Amino acid sequence: MLKVVTDEQFLSKFSELNSLVKTMISHLGHNLAKELDIITNEEEYKYTFTLKALDGTVLSSYAIDLPLESVVVNGTYDVNNKSIVLTLKNGNKVVIPIEQVIDGLATTAQLNAETQARQAADNEIKGLVTAEAQTRSSQDAALSGRITAEAQTRQAKDEELQQNIDNVPFFVGADGYIYGKD
User: Fold this and answer.
1) Residue 166 half-sphere exposure toward CB, CA atoms < 13 A
2) What are phi and psi of 41, to 5 degrees?
């Protein structure tokens, strides 16, 4: 990922660093470092840090080269060459052919074929589920009919039994004796 760092942001951080060093010096004593000089080369984005003692002698020096000249400042699409063209801060151009970016991606035809295959599979499953639901509904209706017929048969048998009991001229009492009916 490319990140743009402005010169102002960079110099602000160096200013904060310089303030920190000055604070450290004031806490550590006056016989140590006195100042931190930062020398910038704006064209090459090179920065030199020099730490100096109270008497002006150089205690330490360190140079860094930031690759800010490689920061992308513009991007375009070249229709003729089917490429992305990135322009760097130093004026150089980086050309990225689209084939390198999309290599391995599915084509529209492949995506359409996959969509159709999934729709066909979904329709097949939907048909199987519908058929199973209809079969079970028919089985439920048949079972309900058998249960109703069995209930009617049992009710008729109960009524017949009750009528037979009512036609018996005697009955057995709770005490175990047989009594006649009036």
Assistant:
1) 6
2) -115, 95
156: its two tokens = 């008729």
d(CA 37, CA 17): 11
Cα torsion through 142, 144, 145, 151, rounded to 10: 150
Higher pLDDT, 10 or 77: 77
pLDDT given at position 169: 82
Predicted TM-score (pTM) of the model is 0.36
2: helix, strand or coil: coil
Question: Hey, what are 39's tokens?
Answer: 């020398």
In a 3-state reduction of DSSP, which class is residue 38? strand
Q: Give burial (CB, 10 Å; 0-12/13-18/19+) of 45.
A: buried
